[in-house]
Amino acid sequence: IHQKLKCSYFTKFAINLQNVIPLWKEVEYYKDYQTKLKSYVGDSKAKSIINEALYLISLGTNDFLENYYTIPSTRSKYTIDQFQDFLIGLVENFVKEIYGLGARKISLTGLPPMGCLPLERSTNFFNGNGDGCMDGYNVVALHFNGKLSGLVEKMNKEMKGIRVVFSNPYGVFMQIIKKPSSFGFEVASVACCASGMFEMGYLCDVLNPFTCSDASKYVFWDSFHPTQKTSQIISDYFMKHSLHEFL
Q1: 166 and 57 in contact (C-beta within 8 Å)?
Q2: Are 224 and 117 in contact (CB under 8 A)?
Q3: Per residue in 167-210, pLDDT tens?
Q4: Confidence (pTM)
Q5: DSSP class of residue 100?
Q6: Are 162 and 106 in contact (CB under 8 A)?
Q7: Treating both helix axes as pointing N-terminal to C-terminal, what angle do 228-241 and 170-178 enclose, rounded to 10 degrees?
Q8: Are 108 and 166 in contact (CB under 8 A)?
Q9: What is the DSSP string of 11-61?
Q10: Are 141 and 114 spatial neighbours (Cβ–Cβ below 8 Å)?
Q11: For the chain, how far is it from start to end, CA to CA, in angstroms?
């Protein structure tokens, strides 16, 4: 049994713009789930389920690409290093909240090489910088992952009975992007959806005449998200290198 919590910190404006679920709302949903679970299986069984469940927490990419680098007011308030520290603090508080509600087995997923997402490569190209990855964004991802790894170590030392692991997608994801053919892919620079450069979400479906016919040949489904095949490779990597501790 696992709970998957995909978390983001966003300003009120960004929440409305991106239609994302902020951290505080995730906690409210989790409390509501617990109430329903207890009414269904009883308090004792519910406590066991909650304690033994694996909580997969994914965070960060939206916060940087759709908040910090997109909304001027965020950049005016924080340097990039300050924003990273701010997010780390929010993550720590979030984990402490769900820990207080019974969560004990937690995986924190770090950032991918976000400068290599098709959307960022396309932006790079149209800004006259070539069609390669945005290296500055990748440096931020590496720094943030380092801080997240440090947070995991800290929480394991300070919080009794908890087990937190850091699931780092950066290395394996970069290998896939640099050598896609080694993983059975043909295209890594653009996505399967439509033009492969900017589209995402509702613009990506089989009814779009420009969407590719075989997504398994592509690393990315849309300009922001990997295909199912890519996600499976990364999930398998996590199972071998971090999540195996919970088996």
Answers
A1: no
A2: yes
A3: 999 999 999 999 999 999 999 999 999 888 988 877 787 777 88
A4: 0.90
A5: H
A6: yes
A7: 140
A8: yes
A9: -HHHHHHHT--BHHHHHHHHHHHHHHHHHHH-HHHHHHHHHH-EEEEEESH
A10: yes
A11: 11
